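Protocol step 4 of 6: structure prediction from sequence.
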Amino acid sequence: MTTFDRLQKMEKRINEEGFTTPTGIGSEIPHYVFDYPPEDELIVRTYTESLLKRTSLNVKEINLFHFLLSMFEDDLEELVALAEEEGFGELTHALQTVLEDQNLVVDTFVEQAEDAELIFITGVGTVHPFLRSSQVLKKLSNHAFRTTIILFYPGHFTGLDLRLFSIFQNEDEYQLARIS
């Protein structure tokens, strides 16, 4: 099945009645992954942009690259200077120090999610290696974030772990279900 066919199948599924309503014994909110070959990034991006315009659901897209920038918007010039003077390693270390603050990450995410019924997380590849999608999902889960999420992932989901660009196997394990 092509990526486009899977996107169409996903669209039908998210528009089914009750998709964003918790079910089951613990009424857990599911987190889904839509994994795809990295070379299909433009297909996925174009389709999701179009889907966001035509769906009746209250869907919010949170692009992880923009999300990261929003967390540091007052410090961007200093971060650029740090990268130029000290190098990539120091920039990564500086970012990681701030991103370890679970409350900051969760509060920023919740603020951007607003009152959405469904969250699309995109931009996973563009924010690598500064922020990992599994880190964000774990922090949200620890704070009982109660909104259904679909992670658009340029790589491969084995059912147990995520492999960014179908190469890197350094994503933490996280409980996800493939959406299509």
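Step 5 (inspection) to follow. The longest helix spans residues 41-54.
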